[in-house]
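Bump. Still looking for Bacterial Ig domain-containing protein structure tokens.
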Amino acid sequence: MTRRFPLPYDYFKALVALVLLLWLFLRLGAAAPKPPTLSVAVDPSGSVTFSGEAPPGREVRVRITPLDTPANPAEVASYADDRGQWLAGLALEPGPYRAQAVAAEVASDEVRFEVPAPAALSPLTLTAPEPTTTPLRLSGTAEPGAWVVVYADGRPVGRVRANDDGAWSLAVDLGSGAHNLIVAYEEAPDVTSDPVAAEVLAPPAPEPQTAVAEEQGAANEPVGRAYVVQEDDWLSKLAAEFLGDARRYHEIREATNAAAARDASFAIIEEDDLIYPGEKIWIPAP
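Sorry for the wait, here they are.
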């Protein structure tokens, strides 16, 4: 029997077959890219963060579908960075959802999550003193760290921030007579306290003086106005507002200390120039 040796043509056919197999392998690999991954993190405020991995440079679209309402699905998009990581965020209403990330028409596994309802704010309370002259020292409780606004007869008269224990206090200057007071959250004005009635007494009438004493008093009476310190007040701010120059804050300190020497209801401002809500100070004329 004659032994047959492979011809060059046989080698050529084998090489073509190998190239075809390699091309088919690469084509199938390109047609089935790796699906993206998806992770979901929910913040109590309702903000949802979507993240994961995908081929670098690929656009990733996240489809979010509510499970308890017929609302249309929401969608948010991002791009994978050079490391193949992507990140996107969206604010959603409370409720259950399902989400799926899609990159190059390949979808990730479905992820289900729920956005919780926001925690209810602490009830507001408001306490007013017995009938007294202005200013009224009000107090109450609220959500710790929250800003509240005090309303008198439907108009705002002051705002204050509750401390870490949820307590707050504020001095308000009201005209004499009966007033209807409530307090509301600044960020949620529909959440209010129960209304509280307060009465401001008229200031006592000055004692009769002789004509000479009246003339001397008028001559010696300082020109300016009394002022009750509010939250977020400081001397340079008041100097800029009432005197037109923040550098004149020392005039308010000196005028207030002079007024305190005549009337104990005025505060005494120390050298550190600190003032506190509810204190009564004197603003000199510009």
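Confidence is low (pLDDT under 50) at residues 210-218.

Edit: fixed formatting.
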